[in-house]
Prior knowledge:
The structure is a single chain. Helix content is about 35%, strand content about 10%. The chain has seven helices and five strands, in the order H-H-E-E-E-H-H-H-E-E-H-H. The strands form two sheets. It has a three-stranded antiparallel beta sheet with strand order 1-2-3, with no helix packed on it. Strands 4-5 form a two-stranded antiparallel ribbon. It is mostly helical.
Amino acid sequence: MHALLATFLLTGGRKSEVLGLEVSDIDFDRKTVTFRPNQWRRLKTATAHRVVPLWPQLEEILREHMIGGHPLDSLLFRSPRLEPEAMIVDLRKALDRIAVQAGREAGEIRTKVFRHTYCAVRLQTLDNGAPVASYTVSRELGHSSTTMVEEVYGHLGRVRHRSDVVEYRTDD
């Protein structure tokens, strides 16, 4: 579950996009994650086919997740209960357990919150030394314009910190 949540938080991917990732969509050499249609799912729009950065924190987590090797055309996150291989389709119970452990109500955490979080954090990063452009972030999220980023996801107050990468700090 750790690697799955990290992938949501560190890619900004939609639920079906992340759950439908195949091992071959992760390119450790190029440091990229590719969202593309495949046998497991389609994409929401034509602009949803995209390549996003494989941030160092996610690279470390996914390398550990993939220890032992998986066939390139297999799902990165497969349902533990279904044979043959099948895509996870419902995360609500798992997210409810996480919410309750965090002192929140069941139902408060859904995958869309991770997308909002990614966008907010990504807007605080640098791109070649300058603040990242809304255009860049909108493309990473699979949007055809910057409107959604600027009006819906980009609900930042005053930016206090700029980083070269998207990452999250946790207390283990």
